[in-house]
Design a protein that fits this description.
The protein is of the alpha/beta class and 337 residues long. It is 49% helix and 14% strand. The strands form four sheets. The protein has a five-stranded parallel sheet with strand order 2-3-6-1-7, covered by helices on one side. The protein has a two-stranded antiparallel sheet with strand order 4-5. The structure holds adenosine-5'-diphosphate. Residues 182-252 are annotated as: Small ATPAse domain (RuvB-S).
Length: 337
């Protein structure tokens, strides 16, 4: 069974994602401060008839970074080109993308922390002076060709801002952190998505789906979609409190929004390391999950919920984690947490 946290959206999910993607600022629910800040930047840029500063968005997957970039392009009435750090392998790839932009366009680079060093070097003058210095040929015959680029706005997105080099980070005019959503905002998102998809859902069911969606819009939309399948197959098409609970229990998403992967990590921490402290490498080996997956997908939510604490000596399972999993805390551990 595929997890609701799968990083790569399935084909159907992509269709749903784009169908539900907010196309106006008022449809983009929550993150009010960020929206306000961005609108000031855009209004000022418009008044000066310039393209806005380069922007960096960071935060977990599914929190709305791509959507925000699309809203920026819409507001500026420009096109958006979407690519990602790992997709740009050579300077030539970057040149092809940049020279195809029109004046004022937005270039959205997802996973910008994974851009390779060579390409990154080329990005600096492109961001600063809108030019690209390409080296043609090799050895003594090599020549530098300067390409003038249209003025564009780069919007970088990352789940791991700490992995961005300082020179790259400093070239963004503004940096925004997208946080987990408030429960009431997620409820509004579920309600809006149900309306757009023509799904009938009871208010109690909206609450239940919102509660278990890790405060993340993409997860909320996926859970809604799964609950709809259950309502259509086993019920009368309406998502009731019971169908939503049944669907989420079947998907093994518990009342706190933890799914099997989260519980596997907590259990490894508690059972194999007595609750920690333990380093990421050992935890990753014991839980059989890649370190990056733990860092990007599981840990931010487990920390947000207070199940894991990060200390200088390693990760520790909190008292809450023991209680949630119904495991008794050993005496030796109780002084630590
Ligand atoms: P990210 O780029 O951070 O991974 P996306 O922008 O792709 O996230 O958002 C994933 C999905 O979640 C979008 O398709 C959209 O439907 C929904 N979504 C994200 N943010 C919001 C929001 N603030 N309001 C409503 N829906 C949102």
């Amino acid at each position: 069974m595929s997890s609701v946290l799968d990083k790569k959206p399935e084909k159907e999910d992509e269709v749903i994602d784009s169908a539900l993607r907010p196309k106006t600022w008022s449809d983009y629910i929550g993150q009010e401060k960020i929206k306000e800040n961005i609108r000031i930047i855009l209004t000022a840029a418009k008044q000066r008839s310039q393209s806005p500063d380069h922007l960096l968005f960071y935060g977990n997957s599914g929190l709305g970074k791509t959507t925000l970039a699309q809203l920026v392009a819409l507001e500026m009435e420009k096109e958006i080109r979407i690519s990602s750090g790992p997709a740009i392998e050579r300077a030539g790839d970057l040149a092809a993308i940049l020279t195809n932009l029109n004046e004022g366009d937005v270039l959205f680079l997802d996973e910008i922390h994974r851009i390779n060093n060579t390409v990154e070097e080329y990005l600096y003058p492109a961001m600063e002076d809108y030019k690209l210095n390409l080296i043609l040929g090799k050895g003594p015959m090599a020549r530098i060709m300067e390409l003038k680029l249209p003025k564009f706005t780069l919007i970088g997105a990352t789940t791991r801002p700490a992995l961005l080099s300082a020179p790259l980070r400093s070239r963004f005019g503004a940096i925004f952190q997208l946080n987990f959503y408030k429960p009431e905002d997620i409820e509004k998102i579920v309600e809006r998505s149900a309306r757009l998809l023509g799904i009938r859902i009871e208010p109690d069911a909206i609450k239940i789906i919102a509660e278990r969606s890790r405060f993340t819009p993409r997860v909320a939309n996926r859970l809604l979609k799964r609950a709809r399948d259950f309502a259509e197959v086993g019920g009368n098409g309406i998502i009731t409190k019971e169908t939503s609970e049944h669907a989420l229990n079947f998907l093994e998403v518990d009342k706190m929004g933890l799914e099997p992967g989260d519980r596997k990590i907590l259990l490894a921490l508690i059972e194999k390391f007595d609750g920690g402290p333990v380093g990421l490498q050992s935890l990753s080996a014991a839980a059989m999950e890649e370190e990056d997956t733990i860092l990007d997908i599981y840990e931010p939510y487990l920390m947000q919920m207070g199940f894991i604490e990060r200390t200088p000596r390693g990760r520790i399972a909190s008292r809450l984690a023991y209680e949630h999993l119904g495991i008794k805390i050993k005496n030796s551990q109780s002084q630590l947490i």
